[in-house]
Amino acid sequence: MIDRAGLAEFLRRRRESLQPEDVGLPRGQRRRTAGLRREEVATLCHISADYYSRLERERGPHPSEQMIASIAQGLHLSHAERDHLFRLAGHQPPQKGASSEHISPGLLRILDRLTDTPAEIVTELGETLRQTPLGVALTGDLTRFSGPDRSIGYRWFAHPAGRDLYHPDDHAHYSRVFAAGLRETVTRRGPGSWAAQLQHLLLERSEEFRTLWNEHEVGIHFSEQKRYVHPELGVLELTCQTLCDPIQSHMLLVYTAVPGSETYEKMQLLSVIGTQQIVATPGG
């Protein structure tokens, strides 16, 4: 059963303990509220301010598991705090591990501070969970996909038109990387895993994937250097640095350009263009 009083008090305490800079929000000059405002938390959680306010007032409908997961992420809760929030709301906490989409507060704090850099947080199957605004400007909104299409490796073979975002000279190597990476993940997670389901879907759908799968390659990795083909700016040569969360198998990918290079100058322009000229494709 839902513990409305406990849920309301816990939400209030967590909200009051957060400062705007903790979650990538501007502080502003006139701030009298201790911690975040309810409206700010609602925005972070992608819910209405009225709905969130009713939860803190011990009112409103019984929140769903999806709603509680969104609130836990918006409040930058630790895994222990997230599990506690689920129990207060009358739900069983999600299982920890590779299938969890709850991003650790540490990774979120780093991402929130990368305001002038393309960056994203992805799962071990290449499912994008969060992006910085400049990351969206570079590749389009990669969080909008659902089902198998959430995995960039699946999209690579199922929707080849999306490869236009990447330099054509890199396509063959990327295909090998995605096939080898999925093979390693299937072996690590087992035949009943989501990775194994993606494998079976791709074996049915893509002849290219079937050919590469039969090669049994493993240990094929991306280079730190990545080349994107932007529709307005042309080729962008970026260095990708990776920070791993071993508990959740999430990775923070940060893309930077060498100062003084042609790409560096283009990235300054990209920050101005933003997403105005971006038309994302299913494989992006």
Describe the structure.
- The chain is globular and about 55 Å long.
- Helices cover 43% and strands 12% of the residues.
- The protein has helices spanning 4-17, 38-45, 49-56, 65-74, 79-88, 105-112, 133-139, 152-158, 171-189, 194-205, 207-213, 262-273, and strands at 119-122, 128-131, 225-230, 234-245, 250-256.
- The model has no long low-confidence stretch (mean pLDDT 90).
- The chain has 284 residues and is of the alpha+beta class.
- The longest helix has 19 residues, at 171-189.
- The protein has a 5-stranded antiparallel β-sheet with strand order 2-1-5-4-3.
- α2 packs across α3 (49-56), α9 (171-189) crosses α11 (207-213) and α10 (194-205) packs across α11.
- The protein has 2 domains: 4-88, lambda repressor-like DNA-binding domains (434 Repressor (Amino-terminal Domain)); 105-273, 2-Layer Sandwich (Beta-Lactamase).
Give the gist of this structure.
With 284 residues, the protein is α+β, with helices and mostly antiparallel strands.
- Provide the CATH topology of the largest domain: Beta-Lactamase
Distance between the termini: 42 Å
- How does the overall form come out from the CA principal axes? globular
Q: Note the total helix count.
A: 12
What is the arithmetic mean of pLDDT?
A: 90
* Order of SSEs: HHHHHHEEHHHHHEEEH
**Overall tally of domains:** 2
Question: Share of helix among residues?
Answer: 40-55%
- Strands, total number: 5
The radius of gyration computed from the alpha-carbon positions, rounded to a whole number of angstroms, is 21 Å
Taking pLDDT < 50 over at least 5 consecutive residues as the criterion, the unreliable ranges are none
How many strands, which pairing sense, and closed or not: the largest β-sheet? 5 strands, antiparallel
